[in-house]
């Protein structure tokens, strides 16, 4: 592909990503995977360049739109790509106006020639930086204006730092399978296969690499030694404190990343039930369990009704108060994963956040029925918004006095600190009642964890 054709591909992809949810828009990472899979002619250099162009726009969208508005230009995918090429970004050197015009020449698969307004834009933006002193803080943070109060409530004075971290590319985190290997052994194995890793700072099961890895092609993956899992997600699973012989439920299992980690913590002994309302989300889990050498997991599809309050159905009644641990990793805004899908923040709205919170409260209340006396209910999200985190837990505790908060700091000391390679909770710089993970403070995706115990 020519450099110009790569830019046109980025414009086409961004147009697709801008489609409203009702038109079937999907996250950027998934869309790009499908886009490249259907275009085998694209070499690795082409894919990398197109991906870089797309994410350059997504990670700078607010600033790009600010500059376009300043020049009375529409915020289209084409204009954003043009502006992104011209403006100096943190990691993106600018292209001069003449070079850009040569790329937009209409030849072959190159973009159509610049019109008069676009030429004027290219000359106006030449030598400018993406971030300008006149930009409002939320523009610099690449954050929708309506989210400002929520983000400020979450991060306070640290909002700028946290949002900047959420706007950077995430590294690749792997979780070792302790049923098959240790962390040092897995690291050496991956090094022999050309992948350089470092231990994650907090999870004793984590390895982190900045290499671009096709994991499915590695023997270490095929043999079940490692799985892809963000360090924050690993910590959530470890804080469940699932032990061998326990009866454990992963109530919103999805694809089963935390299910695999819970099974490893249980050393393959005991009973672990992976639940979800959608069978298709768990379709790949059996093969992942087999690869990991895990045989103590049962998959269960929860009853689904048009009325959310019927979630769980008779299965939950039959298994009421019988589980030692119930992990409830609820559907959420996924705002903690904006590093991976920076486009998601622009598809989010106040109504969807409120709908998520309502559903989360409902799911948590139904999952609570499964917890036996002395057992634990672990609520988790990959969200940075208080509306989906503290507010949901506070509401639950006010209406379920049989449950009490178990400080995460205490559970951390009894689990992660005692593991080989474990760290003290003081390293987390958190209050201790609940746990809030973020890219700026911890280097992982944004997560929230609350642990509650059913009392007599």
**Overall number of structural domains:** 2
Average predicted local confidence, pLDDT = 91
What is the CATH architecture annotation of the largest domain? 3-Layer(aba) Sandwich
CATH class of the largest domain: Alpha Beta
Q: Could you characterize what this model shows?
A:
The protein is an alpha/beta fold and 456 residues long. The chain has 2 domains: 133 residues; 224 residues, Rossmann fold. 41% of the residues lie in helices and 13% in strands. The strands form 2 sheets. Strands 5, 6, 7, 8, 9, 10, 11 and 12 form an 8-stranded mixed β-sheet that branches. Strands 2-3-1-4 form a 4-stranded antiparallel β-sheet, covered by helices on one side. Helix 1 crosses helix 3, helix 4 packs across helix 5 and helix 13 crosses helix 14. The radius of gyration is 24 Å and the shape is globular. The termini are far apart.
């Amino acid at each position: 592909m020519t450099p110009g054709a790569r830019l046109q591909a980025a414009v086409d992809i961004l147009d697709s990503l801008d489609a409203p949810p009702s038109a079937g828009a999907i996250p950027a990472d998934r869309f790009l995977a499908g886009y490249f899979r259907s275009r085998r002619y694209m070499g690795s250099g082409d894919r990398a360049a197109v991906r870089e162009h797309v994410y350059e726009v997504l990670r700078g969208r607010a600033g790009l739109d600010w500059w376009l508005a300043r020049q009375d230009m529409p915020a289209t995918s084409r204009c954003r790509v043009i502006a992104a090429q011209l403006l100096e970004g943190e990691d993106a050197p600018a292209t001069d106006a003449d070079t850009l015009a040569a790329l937009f020449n209409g030849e072959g698969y190159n973009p159509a020639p610049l019109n008069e307004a676009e030429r004027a834009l290219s000359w106006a933006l030449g030598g400018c930086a993406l971030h300008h002193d006149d930009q409002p803080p939320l523009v610099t943070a690449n954050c929708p204006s309506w989210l400002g109060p929520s983000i400020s409530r979450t991060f306070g004075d640290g909002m700028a730092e946290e949002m900047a971290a959420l706007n950077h590319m995430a590294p690749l985190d792997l979780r070792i399978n302790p049923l098959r290997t240790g962390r040092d052994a897995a690291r050496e194995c991956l090094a022999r296969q050309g992948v350089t890793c470092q231990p994650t700072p907090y999870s004793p099961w984590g390895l982190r690499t900045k290499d671009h890895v096709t994991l499915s092609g590695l023997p270490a993956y095929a043999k079940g030694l490692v799985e892809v899992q963000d360090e924050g997600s690993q910590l959530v699973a470890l804080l469940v404190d699932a032990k061998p012989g326990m009866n454990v439920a992963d109530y919103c299992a999805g694809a089963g990343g935390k299910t695999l980690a819970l099974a490893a913590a249980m050393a393959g002994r005991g009973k672990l039930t992976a639940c979800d309302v959608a069978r298709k989300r768990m379709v790949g889990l059996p093969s992942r369990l087999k690869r990991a050498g895990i045989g103590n997991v049962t998959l269960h599809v929860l009853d689904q009704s048009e009325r959310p309050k019927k979630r769980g159905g008779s299965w939950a009644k039959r298994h009421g108060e019988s589980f030692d641990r119930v992990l409830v990793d609820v559907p959420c805004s996924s705002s903690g994963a904006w590093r991976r899908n920076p486009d998601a923040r622009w598809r989010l709205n106040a109504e969807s956040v409120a709908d998520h919170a309502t559903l989360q409260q409902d799911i948590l209340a139904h999952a609570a029925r499964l917890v036996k006396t002395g057992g634990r209910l672990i609520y988790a999200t990959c969200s940075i918004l208080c509306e989906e985190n503290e507010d949901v837990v506070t509401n639950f505790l006010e209406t379920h006095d049989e449950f009490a908060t178990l400080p995460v700091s205490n559970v951390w000391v009894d689990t992660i600190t005692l593991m080989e390679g474990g760290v003290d909770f003081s390293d987390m710089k958190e209050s201790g009642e609940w746990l809030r993970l973020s890219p700026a403070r911890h280097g992982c995706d944004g997560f929230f964890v609350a642990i509650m115990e059913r009392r007599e």
